[in-house]
Task: inverse folding
């Protein structure tokens, strides 16, 4: 569950927030003037996000390596075709 909290309240209650994040699995969105500034998530969630990000970057690099010097117009056509095929399956 994502709980919204002001920056001032986050500073005042950091210990409690850390306990709720680590023990209960809650997430906090810190806002200032009603605008989101940051989030506090558990280390497990953070590590999961980082692992997924690294995997996505690894796959992207593999794609770039396979595409090599392919013409940008050809790349655009291939991407558009893949998107159309993906939408038909959904």
Result:
């Amino acid at each position: 569950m994502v709980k919204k909290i002001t920056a001032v309240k986050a500073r005042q209650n950091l210990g409690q927030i850390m306990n709720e994040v680590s023990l209960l699995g809650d997430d906090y969105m810190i806002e200032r003037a009603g605008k989101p500034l940051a989030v506090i998530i558990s280390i497990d969630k953070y590590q999961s996000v980082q692992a997924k990000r690294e995997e996505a970057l690894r796959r992207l690099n593999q794609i770039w390596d396979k595409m090599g010097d392919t013409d940008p117009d050809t790349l655009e056509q291939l991407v558009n075709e893949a998107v159309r095929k993906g939408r038909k399956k959904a």
